[in-house]
From TrEMBL:
This is Enoyl-CoA hydratase/carnithine racemase. It comes from the Bacteria. SUPFAM superfamilies: ClpP/crotonase. PANTHER family: ENOYL-COA HYDRATASE, MITOCHONDRIAL, ENOYL-COA HYDRATASE-RELATED. Belongs to the enoyl-CoA hydratase/isomerase family. Gene3D superfamilies: 2-enoyl-CoA Hydratase, Chain A, domain 1. Pfam families: ECH_1. GO terms for biological process: fatty acid beta-oxidation. InterPro entries: ClpP/crotonase-like_dom_sf (IPR029045), Enoyl-CoA_hyd/isom_CS (IPR018376), Enoyl-CoA_hydra/iso (IPR001753). GO terms for molecular function: catalytic activity. The lineage of its organism: Bacteria, Pseudomonadati, Pseudomonadota, Alphaproteobacteria, Rhodobacterales.
Length: 202
């Protein structure tokens, strides 16, 4: 249910459980961590999903069994954030719950116009993953972070763009072409130059 395509240094990771809104089981999350921790050799990485939802977060049954508070979420976002290559979350639809962490850890986020963003930890009685509030606040500021995490607001793709949570809104039929275009220079670059530029970027 996690697909990995490797093409000339470009790693494309696809969540493929559209009948369950790409909600993540423990096995899926472990596979994502495994890929992210092995992706140091990638020249660029794209995360996306099948269907009309990027990810609804933890599978409900798995969440009740403890996945909602697993340290795998933090391992995943930490591994993505630590990658020296350019990382892009190509959000094919709504992003919810703990799945926010992997998108927040990416360098760039692009989304289809229909996407919505929410992280209802307050309502569900969980804490967010430790690094998520800081990463979110770095992008959209503390007040808007509280709007999502504490007020439980679901925001639209346009609001996410206006806030700075996503970098571009892209029609669904152009999403992956746009993601590949964004990483094309990094994939083609001299690895030393790419690493040097990455090291200079905050």
């Amino acid at each position: 249910m996690i697909e990995l395509e490797q093409d000339g240094g470009l790693w494309t990771v696809t969540l493929n459980r559209p009948d369950k809104a790409n909600s993540l089981t423990a096995d899926m999350l472990e596979r994502l961590v495994e890929i992210a921790e092995a992706a140091g050799e990638a020249r660029a990485l794209i995360l996306t999903g099948r269907g009309k939802v990027f990810s609804a977060g933890a599978d409900l049954d798995a969440a009740r069994a403890g996945l909602a508070t697993s340290d795998l979420w933090e391992r995943l976002s930490g591994a993505i954030a630590a990658l020296p290559c350019l990382t892009v979350a190509a959000l094919n639809g709504t992003l919810a719950g703990g799945a926010n962490g992997m998108a927040l850890a990416c360098d760039l986020r692009i989304a289809v116009p229909e996407a919505k963003f929410f992280y209802p930890v307050m309502k569900l009685g969980f804490l967010p993953q430790p690094s998520d509030p800081a990463r979110m606040a770095a992008l959209i500021g503390p007040a808007r972070t509280r709007l999502i995490l504490m007020a439980g607001q679901k925001i639209t793709a346009q609001e996410a763009y206006d806030f700075g949570l996503v970098d571009r809104i892209v029609p669904a039929d152009a999403l992956m072409d746009t993601a590949r275009a964004l990483v094309a220079d990094s994939v083609a670059a001299d690895p030393v130059v790419a690493a040097g530029i990455a090291g200079l970027c905050p």
